[in-house]
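Complex record, two chains
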Amino acid sequence: ILNVEQSPQSLHVQEGDSTNFTCSFPSSNFYALHWYRWETAKSPEALFVMTLNGDEKKKGRISATLNTKEGYSYLYIKGSQPEDSATYLCAFRTNFGNEKLTFGTGTRLTIIP
Amino acid sequence: SQTIHQWPATLVQPVGSPLSLECTVEGTSNPNLYWYRQAAGRGLQLLFYSVGIGQISSEVPQNLSASRPQDRQFILSSKKLLLSDSGFYLCAWSPGLYYEQYFGPGTRLTVT
């Protein structure tokens, strides 16, 4: 059983502040790490797919880094806005050649206006 | 552009009743299709995936089943629901192995 952990479980951040949270995953048999944003009453939306150790991806104020050797990824949000309130999910894919994404339980982010 | 539909949006069913949830994808052909469930306080769990018509892989043994009668249609079923089947069910599609997955709006199932 693959263990994908996200921390913290929930986070309250003042509007305008920057924040980050962590996804930990097995460091062996790595193929890809996915980040999704899941807003209330909407579908999970893909943010990033990261495959190479040292990868950094950026989309607007959101960026992510990847360390496959130690098995973690950080998601950063710069200058938080109310629309950033959502649950952020990471999902780990192995190089076993199957379809399975193993999801973490998510970090629930609330931006305080 | 591609669109994924799920229905119903919410469902309340008694224990022991049957279940049928439907998912369809528009705007693409031969997608990989997935059923996920999120139970209370838990992460998204892959239940089934399909790489083609009639091809179903099950990830978790349970009283649920899945079928893919057409290229862009994926159905989740149960003959007799259990209380533990309550949760949020999401259908997803991807263009192929190792691609991003795109999720539908979900079905909230409450088994009473």
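Note: The first strand of chain B starts at residue 3 and ends at 7.
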